[in-house]
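Input record (one chain):
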Amino acid sequence: MRGPGARVSTPAPPPEDEPGEDSPLLRWLRGRMAEENRLRRWLRRAT
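The corresponding structure, as predicted from the sequence alone:
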């Protein structure tokens, strides 16, 4: 266990929304999410 004021000098992880190497799975997932959002908006308008 570290003491109460101990600092860890590890670099901060990059932000999640940072554009980088997109894996095909990530691109597919984003496409699915966009499609779902479009369908939700359409459904909200239709009701």
